[in-house]
Amino acid sequence: MRLLLDTHVLLWFLAADPRLGSPRDAIIAPANDIFVSVVSLMEIVVKIRAGKLRVDVAEVLAETKAQGFEFLPLAPRHVVAVAGLPVHPRPS
Question: Structure pTM?
Fold first, then answer.
């Protein structure tokens, strides 16, 4: 199976956070290919700079690589695709 981890799942996995629960089994299964978007790394940096997250992004990057996860790049065509998505209001 091919799995794309979102930012929270990546951070919870790397921190062995119990909130991750049973999806952890799928992440560690050798038969699965695990992907992380570089956008998640950018989101981590934004949260660090806003004071909402205390992690070392270099350590997150190193541990993500050590786990054998594959990084997915952001290409210009992805930006164009996102520009065409509808805007959803933030939950109140």
Answer: 0.82
